[in-house]
Amino acid sequence: MSRLPIYVGLTLLLMVSGTIPLHAAEPPVDFKRDIRPILSNRCFACHGPDEEKVESGLRLDRFDGVTHPADSGRIPIVPKNPDTSELIRRVSSTDDDERMPPPHFGGRLTDSEIAKLQQWIQEGAPYSKHWSFDRLSPPDREQLIVPALPGFESWQTHAIDQLVLRQLLKKGWTPSQQADKQTLLRRVSLDLTGLPPSIEMQQAFLKDNGWDAYERAVDELLASPAYGEHWARKWLDLARYADSAGYADDPQRTIWGYRDWVIRALNENMPFDQFTIEQLAADLLPNATDDQLIATAFHRNTLTNNEGGTNDEEFRNVAVVDRVNTTMSVWMGVTMACAQCHTHKFDPITQKEYFQVFAIFNQTQDADRRDESPTLDWFTPEQRQMRKEWLEQQQSIETQLAAPDPNALPDQRKWENQLSAQIDWKTIIPSSASASGKAPMTIDSSGNIRVQNDAVRDTYTIEWDVKDLEQLQGLDGLAIASLPHPDLPGGGAGMANGNFVLSDVRARVMDPQTKGVNAKYVRVELPGKDRILSLAEVQVFSGADNLAPNGKATQINEDYGGSPNRAIDRNTTGDFSKNSVTHTKSCDDPWWELELQNTATIEKVILWNRTDGNVEMRLDGARVLLLNDARETVHSYQLEKAKASQAIELAPSLEIVWSVASADYFQPGFEPKLAIDSDRKSGWAVGESVDRPHTLQVAVSPGIREKLKSWQRPARVKFELDFQSQFNRHVLAGFRLAISTDDKT
Q: How far, in Å, CA of 528 to CA of 599, rounded?
């Protein structure tokens, strides 16, 4: 219990109370206590250690400077002869031209101060260093022994107690009686942990009558995590620690690892020399651990300023100055900052020595950067233990997986054979094909589709009337085969010198015999507080006709020029800067509404979302309502998660979702998976191999396959192929579709 004597001594000092002191003979003058304060406060400004400010060649801070003649030829101090000492004559003079300190500097010395100086010189004018610069020598134990006082025998057992008692008796004071056990435990608990003792600890201590009960209680408190947490606060104050960076904006930062390091160091009773080295120079230790490097964050608590226009180099220099001053203040107990501008007036520190220390710290990489770099990726001890256990588990699993399993070999061979088998694809003969850009499309008897297309971007709609429901119920995948032709640009299958970018593939099964919903109004509502409704376009289809542009659009309010008519301007661009997106104010439950010219049978509504600024999620949770002439809701649909565009089929239908995509070839950066990721800007392309046929294969997700098995209605499958990338005229001009009902898909 090596820490116990320190706290016992401190606690006993707090227990001392006094009585009226006894009169004693005038004690000898103590230079440190009685004389140095007078010289420091009244004389050192002109006659101190700062050689550039020394007047008359006289320095009063050292003995050899006062026993030789000054520039005036007179000896300032003649030991044991105050009457001939120039110092006494000058401080006692009533002549303002003679007396020291001069009137313009300060008032004259008091009679008691002059008397102290006279007594000091009479005693030989002994000099001594400030105690903080002098070698400490422990007192002779024999000199500490004092007569035993009845009731205070325990004061004789410890040197600190003896020293305190001796000083009390010198002053004629009597110590207080020892506190009772309950008070003593409370005091030491507050001292060590900052917390009162628990009821359980207090009860156990009161019942413990052993001679070392107090020692055991102290051991328990020192072993408590609260000990390190309490005393770490005091050190963290010295380290200028804070969880945030301070100054005007006070941004958060991640430095709590250093705080926890200090707490652990105290709780683990780290030796003070190690505690010092790791905070000041852990980065210079051989094979320093992360914990040791974290300790150097003692000096990452310097002044910072990230305001615009500040100079990083200026504040890097400020940080170095702060490190010098803080290091010397914390470890040496001196005000080193004074020597930054001049040699210290009171302590033996020159300005040159200040900047020698400055040079040690002027080698750091940080420079007041907003990102606090350089930083260290670091795990807490608990995280390191968890990581170690996980890595061991990973190694164990990898070892198991690396070992061949004889029981699995037959199944593996079966799976490999299935994987290498050819998939049976059946070309479909579509019943119709159309392009949103109105380009002519033809279908031959083999199912090959040709498009005479000059569109910049386009969307193809291919409908297939299912004759055999078993084909639909067993649908596993779709293949889109490009068909190069000599008559097409570049001899390829696309219009961009033979290339194309297929940006999205969609499919939906519907009942062709079921009509849509009769409605007069289409309304989009966005429930919730402080929400903004933005729409790039709303398309309302009856058959192949979009009825929306001929209707009348309104909305709850308007902001930033985002009028409701922008949603029916035939422009699906989702970039607000292109002036084709609506915008309401931030308000509760915003809405947008379209009134059609007449009640119509609506088969499909497509919502096009705003796509710039990463605000697509604003449309999450929107409701699409269809209202009749009497404004009664005849159909409603809710968007759980908004997409770039959302098609709402009003006849019974099932959207086919793809799980994976592959192709026999793809252009780098245009992988097959990009054709099913719902991102209209990316897609599958075949550049550098446009003159050869290539096939994109997409697999139906397992969940949809299960739903298709139960479809019993007449069926029509609507395939939509998007060519909406940023590359102009990258559209297909020759292709065919095929389906598979093969489990191998």
A: 30
Kindly state whether residues 506 and 521 are assigned to the same domain: no
Task: Using the structure block, give the residue that is written with the tokens 């050869």.
Answer: 692
Q: Which of 590, 610, 607, 578 has its CA nearest to residue 532? A: 590
- b/e burial code for range 623-659 (CB count within 10 A of at least 16 → b): ebbbbeeeeeebbeeebeebbbbbbbbbbebbebbbe
The whole-angstrom separation of Cα 742 and Cα 422 is 10
Domain hosting 74: range is 31-133
In order, the DSSP letters of 694-712 are -EEEEEEPHHHHHHHTT--
In angstroms, rounded to a whole number, what is the distance separating the alpha carbons of residues 373 and 280?
18
From residue 121, alpha-carbon distances to 44, 128, 392, 573 in Å are 18, 14, 78, 96
CATH code for the domain in which residue 548 is found? 2.60.120.260
CB within 8 A of 405, min separation 6: which ones?
none
Task: Report yes or no on 204 lying in a domain.
Answer: no
Asked if 501 and 577 touch (Cβ cutoff 8 Å), the reply is: no
Alpha carbon distance 644, 101 (integer Å): 85
Task: Write out the two tokens for 320.
Answer: 């170095």
* Cα(201)–Cα(207) distance, integer angstroms: 10
Report the alpha-carbon distance of residue 602 to residue 214 in Å, rounded.
88
Q: Which of 650, 670, 704 is the last residue of a domain?
A: 650
pLDDT of residue 744: 65
pTM of the model: 0.48
Q: What is the pLDDT of residues 53-83, one digit of tens each?
A: 888 888 888 887 788 888 888 899 999 999 9
Question: Rounded to 10 degrees, what is the CA torsion of 318, 324, 326, 332?
Answer: -170
